[in-house]
Specification:
By secondary structure, the chain is an all-beta fold. The chain has one domain: TolB, C-terminal domain (Neuraminidase), CATH 2.120.10.30. The protein is 0% helix and 52% strand. The chain has no helices and 24 strands. It is globular.
């Protein structure tokens, strides 16, 4: 699918665009610019809105009720639908000064799974001190995984009870089998590591359980057959730094891509929202009971 139709739908010049999803409640794309402390909404006719946040938001996720769940650096909050009010519901890693909340997804049981990120400026010597957690609808917090540097790539294949996850610097997309309400969470064998296509960042699953991975510093999105653990599509992008992907639009057949603005002189498309018209469809966004 190298000849896929790719377009830039919003020139928003995000410093670090992330955590995109298509919100079925409001029929729009939602995402965050972490560094700029902004949230965005983009509707089908490219009408967009920008909202100021009180702090950096590593993720934004939708609820069954109005509003959103937001992961600020060291706590999780509930926001109204206009991002004008915020209520803290959970503290996270207040005792670890180097980490902040990063990637997250709504899980099939109404909670959220989210990870943290060691943002020590000394990238070469960053240590794996970040973690992966689940916040349940009753607001109980469960620790799922340790020894992480950069949590990313969370996605659920519900029929198979599999969750995918990537610690970006390792390059490996991992598999975990989970049971009802995450009473068990077991690592399964995975060989999904791919060279010469950048590193794994945000991800999503399509209706055929293929895994779509934004490849930061790889100038592409790849689609992975998770059974055979092979790349079945590679779609080149105008930016070197895609960060997250989600299916959206009326038919859920458009793949939206956020990106970061790392090198504005040589990568002018970095930080914008791009769209790929695909031959498949995504799954409708899960809504949290939180």
């Amino acid at each position: 699918m190298n000849n896929a139709q790719v377009s830039t739908v919003l020139k928003c010049e995000n410093i670090l665009g992330e955590s995109c999803f298509w919100d079925p409640r409001y029929d729009c794309l939602v995402w965050t610019d972490i560094q700029e402390k902004k949230a965005f909404k983009l509707y089908d006719k490219n009408k967009s809105f920008k909202f100021n946040l009180p702090d950096r938001a590593g993720f934004i996720l939708p609820r069954k009720k109005d509003g959103f769940i937001i992961g600020f650096p060291n706590f999780i909050a509930i926001a109204d639908q206009d991002f004008s009010s915020f209520k803290k519901i959970c503290d996270v890693e207040n005792n670890i000064k180097e980490t902040r909340i990063n990637d997250a997804k709504v899980d099939p049981y109404g909670g959220i799974v989210f990870g943290t990120y060691n943002e020590d400026p000394d990238k070469i010597n960053r240590k794996p001190i970040a973690n992966l957690y689940r916040l349940a609808p009753d607001l109980s917090l469960t620790h799922l995984l340790s020894n992480i540097t950069v949590s990313n790539g969370i996605a659920f294949s519900q029929e198979q009870n599999l969750m995918y996850f990537a610690d970006t610097p390792t390059g490996l997309i991992q598999k975990f089998e989970y049971s009802q309400d995450f009473r068990t969470f077991v690592k399964r064998e995975s060989n999904m590591i791919f060279n010469n296509v950048g590193e794994p960042d945000g991800a999503t699953i399509d209706i055929e359980n293929n895994y779509w991975s934004a490849r930061v510093r790889g100038k592409c999105v790849i689609c992975i057959d998770t059974i055979n653990e092979k790349i079945i599509e590679k779609i080149d992008l105008p930016t070197n730094t895609p960060t997250c992907v989600t299916f959206g639009g009326a038919e859920l057949s458009s793949l939206y891509v956020t990106s970061l603005r790392a090198d504005p002189d040589n990568d002018r498309a970095g930080g914008n929202i791009h769209k790929i018209e695909t031959s498949t469809k995504g799954r409708e966004q899960l809504l949290s009971d939180i």
